[in-house]
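I hope you will forgive my troubling you with a question about protein structure. The matter concerns a single protein, recorded as an amino acid sequence and a row of backbone structure tokens. Please examine both parts with care and let me know of anything in them that strikes you as inconsistent. Here, with my thanks, is the record as I have it:
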Amino acid sequence: MRRDTYVKTEAFIREWNNDKSKTSTMGHNKFSDWTEEEKKKLRGHVGKTVVRETFEDARDKATALETLNWCSTENDTGMSQCSPVKD
């Protein structure tokens, strides 16, 4: 399985690098033999579908967030959401 994934990645990299319209080049890294499912887990993918909001919904949420005092809001542990400034 790992070898097959690596070979597919190699083909993708070669195709990308041979395309003269591209202004960048690609190479292998430690993820070259990872499956797409493994990469999704690394990115925090939980399998939920993203639903786009309407402009009005986003505006209403933004207005609500602007009025929220983040430093006085407590989380599950009862601690403030803001920490003191550190030098």
In short: The chain has one domain: 2-66. The chain has three helices and no strands. Residues 55 and 77 are 34 Å apart (CA to CA). The mean pLDDT is 79.
